């Protein structure tokens, strides 16, 4: 009795062990199935999340890798690294241009032409103008800047008969001359006719004396009648006593101002033969 009631049932004991082994195999099979069927899907899903917030380009091509600041790495050669994105053409945000256009070629600036007041003054003179210009007796005129004045003014020494492109085209004769100026290859010549006025004085060079005396007047000159010194090329001051319409065969004999006038006159026919100029040595 005792053996029957205290021992294990051989049939029941064998069934329990078989069930445990079957359970282990089921667990192993389940683990293998998870590894084969489920785990690859989880890993692939994790890889896709690396494009967080971005859609794949059409065709499945991955976008270029980005560097610091969001610029694509591997920029074209010649573009320095570390340049802010706003200064690179085609990159960065905002605007439609290339960020300042530092590579644009600028048109050369138009050269500045320096003003030439003297040239402008010459070109402003017209025929018929009068100028406060005279020969100083030292081989030049008193000014290189021809400023027109009223022809009735006391300093209207010259009358402009013409304006030419060269002095050679101006009339040449007693009481006539020209002054010219060349600027940037352009010459302006002012043809001058002396305006003689009674009471004014001229410079002259006298040679010889008595009946052998000869007087060479500087007809384009003007001088203070009371001047104490004269240029070395001259030695006399002549006083203008009369300016007349030249008669036929005009001479100093036509300069007498009163009947029986015994003044020693020096005369010239000027202005193209139309005017008789009468002078005398200034006596003070």
From TrEMBL:
Compositional bias annotation for Gly residues: 91-103
Ranges annotated as biased composition (Low complexity): 73-82, 105-118
Keywords attached to this entry: Membrane, Transmembrane, Transmembrane helix
Annotated spans, Disordered: 53-121
Residue stretches spanning the membrane: 24-43
Protein name, as recorded: Serine/threonine protein kinase
Source organism of the structure: Streptomyces asiaticus subsp. ignotus
